[in-house]
Amino acid sequence: MDGKAVIDEHASDLVARIGALPRSASFQSIVLNPDFQPLRLLADPAAGGVVASYERPDRGLALVGIGSADRVEVAPGRGPASIRDDARRLLERPLAGDAPGVRPRLLGGFRFNPAAETGEPWGAFGAGWLLLPRVLFVLDGESTAVVIAPDVDPREAARAAERTLGREAPSNGATLEVERPMNRSRWLDSVARIAAQVREGAYEKAVLASTQRLAADHPISVGAALARLRENYPNCHLFTMTADDATFLGASPELLVSLTDGRVHALGLAGSLARGETPEDDERLGAELLASAKDRIEHESVVRAIRERLAPVTDELHAPNAPRLRKLRNIQHLSTDITGHVRPGVDVLDLVQRLHPTPAVCGWPTEVAREVIQDHEDFDRGWYAGPVGWMDATGDGEFAVGLRSAVVRGSHAWLFAGNGIMGDSDPESELAEVQWKFRPLGEALGT
């Protein structure tokens, strides 16, 4: 949208209230009209100034950040816990205003492998960062509020909000074509070689990923893609992270870890099969997945690794003995919830560093699987399969694994997907599975 923004009376009132705030060294909050929906800010995210967002549609959670007041960056080769103290300092100032219960938060993410060489299209993203939005809109259950960062000029914040609120999602009417498909022959050869090495006992599992690049006849609408993902995958973790002119977005089915008032929750997610065309067919395929020795072994390795990594910093760690089915629009997974209580002094970034990467996105043992990935993948994963999410001043937070994701830059999109390869993995079956996993973002982008 060019020219002046066109906004309704609720948005106009909000802009006026933000602009009337005094400049402050504290966080400032405003309770929003219940009719206001923060998701409208995501109609045209990058063009509207949205730098990061995180949603759980089925939980009524939406965090939308406009502009960056400050951010802490991970040095190459370092992990998320290395910025823990600096991240906390960004949130240590008090909160004023009429929404005292709202929490200022940082949003961001981290590379899958912080030590790997950066390649296309990840140059602007770096090894990872958490940013403090200049203006943060929060929808959390029944409460809706906006938080202005310290030392931000409220008049500038009001103008930024007005520009974003006045945008409408452009339709994704672009004609997309696969400009650079995944290398199928390389994929089939790699699966066969990895499976043979697993059978020989060299390691237990490696996760092989692939990528494909799409091109459109005009700029791709991230807002329209998000709307489709929100409709089709409401029980996933939706996110956007923008660096310069590129946006990393996705609808991940996989929680890495959350921490709330000392209670930790992680998710073991591994083992996949397509959904059925009919309810009867879907039930049959679900039973087949639950009975699959290959998928059960793969799943148990993930659950075992999560438990082993959480055990030193938790008490009362619990995981059910058998997985359940997690059914998404076009694929179903084996899933196990792992819960416990963290010991004093442990925050969400400590847990992220302990758990990432899980065997579900890397393999097992981790260091051997990393080397296998480096040998077989000819592209940079960047933030794909890395942690994305948020944290607050207490050290609570939630990070998902950046799966079912893509990077959009102008009229191009890079899609990513991967599979866990075991000793009895069949190359053709694994090829079919990775193509299922490309579908959520491909469909959302308009292919």
Walk me through the structure.
There is one protein chain. By secondary structure, this protein is an alpha+beta fold. The protein has two domains: 9-165, no CATH class; 176-236 and 254-445, Anthranilate synthase. The chain contains ten helices and 21 strands. It has helices spanning 9-19, 84-90, 154-165, 184-199, 222-232, 279-291, 293-310, 348-355, 366-376, 427-445, and strands at residues 27-31, 50-56, 61-73, 95-97, 105-110, 128-140, 143-148, 176-180, 205-216, 237-243, 246-252, 255-260, 263-274, 314-318, 324-327, 331-342, 363-364, 387-392, 397-401, 405-409, 412-421. Mean pLDDT is 92; it is low at 1-5.
CATH topology of the largest domain: Anthranilate synthase
Please report which band the strand proportion falls in: under 5%, 5-15%, 15-25%, 25-35%, 35-45% or over 45%: 25-35%
Number of helices: 10
What is the CATH level 1 assignment of the largest domain?
Alpha Beta
